[in-house]
Design a protein that fits this description.
It catalyses: Endohydrolysis of (1->4)-beta-D-glucosidic linkages in cellulose, lichenin and cereal beta-D-glucans. InterPro entries: 6-hairpin_glycosidase_sf (IPR008928), 6hp_glycosidase-like_sf (IPR012341), Glyco_hydro_9 (IPR001701), Glyco_hydro_9_Asp/Glu_AS (IPR033126), Glyco_hydro_9_His_AS (IPR018221). The chain is mainly alpha-helical. Helices cover 47% and strands 5% of the residues. It has 19 helices and 7 strands. The strands form 3 sheets. The protein has a 3-stranded antiparallel sheet. A hairpin with a 5-residue loop joins strand 4 and strand 5.
Length: 482
């Protein structure tokens, strides 16, 4: 155990966190759907999805493609916006000129979510038939698969996707509060109404939209955590005690036991650890010892490699692993929570106790987060950066349609559904560099096969990058290990 602890601590400061931060935000421009603005910096991407929603009389143009496909899955998209907003709120002071680009990335998502929630009693959860889309290897600029809009309603509820959108809108309202008060208020007002809808008409979109959202983004953990997550963000945005009361009264959904299975989980599906960390700041200031603080401490104890209650695995090279595909989502989201909680602990002069005799200072949480950041950027057995376009060695054949296929500048003619297959099957590097994209990552033996065939390892997603923006912003201002 001591060997593992020392291995994870052994990190350098050779990485350019300033460059990595810039590129991690730039990545979102490569995922944009809709009419691209004149300020678009990733110029090989062009306009796409310009008639989304028109078949049902609703403007659903905009938003983001979640990964390497051309579907707009609003559940993970909303989580990505929540995490981008949280990154700016906690570490925006360190972003410098990149902060404006981060706000632009958030607004690209929130403008779309205002459209998706513009009709009372209806929340649009997805645009595009995923089965047809995944059959084709086609540029987003060319796609001719059905752009079917899928919605939840009072008769066909979807509390998880609605509540996550409410959380994204509430968190983002804080980002724009000082720079665009009117827009901030619009976001907050919509967050309140969407949360009320999600709570009043409870039910999972697995049931109402199952054939289209599953198996892609099924909600495996239930919708209760999203309701509490949204209420926690609304409490932070409004300071209204009613939202905190809602979380406390409904916390049984997360279980009162700090040993509950989901207390250490956080991502687009499970919000438990995020709720506990988010609320911990307020509770520490109040001197409260409510159940959220023990659960936040428990989360830390499941992550630290030397902890007697560790529940994650680490590769020999030091990368944390949890079950499921696209493992880098765990490394980035959990590292983000470690940094935020370390900040809260330090401000409150608290430590974390793991087991009977192990007391963990905030600095240790920062060390573990740094080990994950540096691994992703190239401090690993393969000396490979898992961020596209960063470093001298990075994935060249990522699982991403727009990156794999020649751009409109290079191939103005349309590429049909199966016209892209030869490009997918090619062993040549992708012609378009999706700068800043973080791929799913290596296996637990620290091996990475640079192949677009292995999508769980080679596909980037918005929810891998979003928390990493905040992590990189922190280390931009704290580049030297201590």
């Amino acid at each position: 155990m001591i060997g593992m602890m020392m291995m994870v601590k052994k990190v350098g400061s050779a990485h350019d966190y300033v460059e990595a931060l810039y590129k991690s935000i730039l990545f979102f421009e490569g995922q944009r759907s809709g009419k691209l603005p004149p300020t678009q910096r990733m110029t090989w991407r062009k306009d796409s999805g310009l008639r989304d929603g028109f078949e049902v009389g609703v403007d659903l143009v905009g938003g983001y493609y979640d990964a390497g496909d051309n579907v707009k899955f609003n559940f993970p998209m909303a989580f990505s916006m929540t995490m981008l907003a949280w990154s700016v709120l906690e570490f925006g002071w360190s972003m410098g000129p990149d902060k404006a680009h981060a706000r632009d990335a958030i607004r690209w998502g929130t403008d779309y979510f205002l459209k998706a929630t513009s009709h009372p009693g209806i929340v649009y959860a997805q645009v595009g038939d995923p089965h047809a889309d995944h059959y084709c290897w086609q540029r987003p600029e060319d796609m001719d698969t059905p752009r079917t809009p899928y919605a939840v309603s009072s008769q066909l509820p979807g509390s998880e996707v609605s509540a996550e959108i409410a959380a994204a809108l509430a968190a983002s309202s804080l980002v724009f509060k000082s720079v665009d008060p009117a827009y901030s208020q619009t976001l907050l007002d919509r967050a309140k109404s969407v949360f009320e809808f999600a709570d009043k008409y409870r039910g999972s979109y697995n049931i109402t939209l199952g054939p289209w959202v599953c198996p892609f983004y099924c909600d495996f953990s239930g919708y209760e955590d999203e309701l509490l997550w949204a209420a926690a963000w609304l409490f932070k945005a409004t300071k209204s005690p009613s939202y905190l009361q809602y979380v406390v009264q409904n916390a049984h959904a997360l279980s009162h036991s700090p040993y509950a299975a989901n207390s250490a989980e956080f991502g687009w599906d499970v919000k438990n650890a995020g709720i506990n960390v988010l609320l911990s700041k307020f509770l520490m200031k109040r001197g409260s010892s409510s159940l959220f603080l023990p659960d936040a401490d428990w989360f830390v104890c499941t992550i630290l490699p030397e902890s007697p209650t560790k529940s994650v695995e680490y590769s020999a090279g030091g990368l944390m692993f949890k079950p499921g595909g696209s493992n880098m989502q765990h490394a980035t989201t959990l590292s983000y929570l470690l940094l935020v909680y370390a900040k809260y602990l330090d401000n409150s002069n608290r430590t974390v106790q793991c087991g009977n005799n192990m007391f963990v200072p905030p600095q240790r949480l920062i060390q573990v987060a740094r080990s994950q950041v540096d691994y992703i950027l190239g401090s690993n057995p393969l000396n490979m950066s898992y961020m596209v376009g960063y470093g001298n060695k990075f994935p060249q054949k990522i699982h991403h349609r727009g990156s794999t296929l020649p751009s409109l500048d290079q191939h103005p003619g349309k590429l049909g559904c199966v016209d892209g297959t030869p490009y997918f099957e090619s062993y040549s590097p992708n012609p378009n560099v999706l700068t800043g994209a973080i791929v799913g990552g290596p296996d637990i033996q620290d091996q990475y096969n640079d192949s677009r065939f292995h999508f769980t390892h080679s596909e980037p997603t918005t929810y891998i990058n979003a928390p990493f923006v905040g992590v990189l912003a922190y280390f931009k201002s704290h580049p030297n290990p201590s």
